[in-house]
Automatic annotation (TrEMBL):
Keyword Nucleotidyltransferase: no
Originating species: Holdemania filiformis
Cellular compartments per GO CC: ATP-binding cassette (ABC) transporter complex, substrate-binding subunit-containing
Protein's recorded name: ATP-binding cassette domain-containing protein
TM regions (residue ranges): none
SMART domains assigned: AAA
SUPFAM superfamilies in alphabetical order: MOP-like, P-loop containing nucleoside triphosphate hydrolases
């Protein structure tokens, strides 16, 4: 039995009728780092609070190390929680703040001290141990809060937007530290964020939530490559996915129908193509592979950059479209380009249910 955390169909409705969490089931194995991601209000924090025992589910069961924890008080659960703005005691030193996390309170002072020093070393807080918490920077405070949560040595570490108050550079740095520490300790962790790039950086297992429900729960690569729903396709991805609603009886001229493997029985579908997989080439250049599903001609209206990659955007079939501009395509605003994508890069969704069709 190496399931450290197991949620079985947990639900929570708040007074006033908000169904914050709706039949959520989820399992984390020992040492796994799970990330709950989704838009504001989708139920991420409520899920974490139910695991920590701060909120009682209306239905469903929560197990930690295989034991149902339904009747247990927060302090009796084998879980540590780190909040977005984990409050430190401002007038106490870093060492004293860390000591609040210590798992075994009855150890002698020397053992206490060595545990605190060990975690301080791992989090680069050694020189700050005697400083008052109120004199720390935001990033240093987050480190202390992380150290305090880790010192609890709980089976499950719960982190609610632990990095959202930090600037980008610090966030990236602390993301690395969280990863390193969780790996080193084999710490089972469930982290909440609304930032999809943070989710992709951290997750062994990514859980996309929307309106209290899980849209997809899988390894990050598969969510990017094979989104299970339209929502997951739109929420995860460095640039917004392109979408067209197309009827099989009258496919729009932008698609080369003979090259599209139409899902069985579908009448109308939403076709999604990620900008990374939609390549532009100059109008008169030789075509790419024979399998490419041709998407038509576009006038470049804007450029977008992500890192070293360049994207263009314009309109195609009445919808906005974004596409990659491979190196060597020296296009300018106003140029016409031809777009193509491999047939395998096309995602099909049911327009009614939003579910993936093939
Ligand atoms: P965010 O990313 O903004 O923190 P979230 O995904 O963590 O959002 P929750 O905080 O779990 O979402 O909230 C889910 C829903 O439940 C929201 O509609 C919220 O307004 C509602 N809600 C949360 N706490 C309460 C409460 N104590 N009483 C009533 N409604 C609540």
């Amino acid at each position: 039995m190496n399931n450290m955390l197991e949620l079985t169909a947990i639900s929570k409705q708040y007074p006033g009728g908000v169904q914050a969490v709706d039949q959520v089931s989820l399992t984390l194995k020992a040492g796994e780092l799970g990330v709950l991601v989704g838009p504001s209000g989708c139920g991420k924090t409520t899920t974490l609070r139910m695991i920590a025992g701060l909120e009682k589910p209306d239905q469903g069961t929560i197990r930690i190390r295989g034991q149902a924890v339904d009747g247990q008080r927060p302090q009796d659960r084998d879980a540590a929680m780190m909040f977005q703005s984990s409050a430190l005691f401002p007038w106490l030193s870093v060492a004293e703040n860390l000591a609040f996390g210590l798992a075994k309170k009855n150890l002698d002072r020397r053992t206490h001290r060595s545990q605190i020093e060990a975690i301080a070393r791992q989090l680069q807080l050694e020189d700050l141990l005697e400083r008052k918490a109120r004199t720390l920077s935001g990033g240093q405070r987050q480190r202390v809060a992380l150290g305090r949560a880790l010192l609890k040595e709980a089976a499950v570490l719960l982190m609610d937007e632990p990095l959202s108050s930090l600037d980008r550079q610090l966030r990236l740095q602390l993301q690395d530290e969280i990863l390193r520490l969780c790996r080193q300790r084999g710490q089972t962790t469930l982290l909440v964020t609304h930032d999809q790039s943070e989710a992709l950086n951290l997750a062994d297992r990514l859980v996309v939530m929307n309106q209290g429900r899980i849209e997809q729960n899988d390894i990050p690569q598969r969510i990017v490559a094979q989104p299970a729903t339209l929502f997951a396709a739109q929420f995860i991805g460095e640039r917004p996915i392109n979408l067209w609603t197309v009827r099989s009886a009258a496919p729009q001229s932008i698609f080369q129908p003979s090259q599209i493997v139409w899902p069985d029985g579908a009448d109308t579908v939403v076709i999604g193509v990620r900008p990374q997989q939609l390549r532009a080439r100059r109008l008169n250049s030789a075509s790419g592979s024979e399998e490419a599903a041709l998407m038509g001609e576009v006038v470049i209206e804007r450029f977008h950059w992500t890192g070293a990659q360049r994207f263009g955007s314009g309109r195609l079939g009445g919808s906005p479209v974004e596409f990659s501009l491979p190196e060597g395509v020296n296009s300018q605003i106003g140029d016409r380009v031809v777009l193509s994508a491999d047939a395998s890069a096309l995602h099909f969704f049911d327009p009614e249910t939003g579910r993936r069709l093939s």
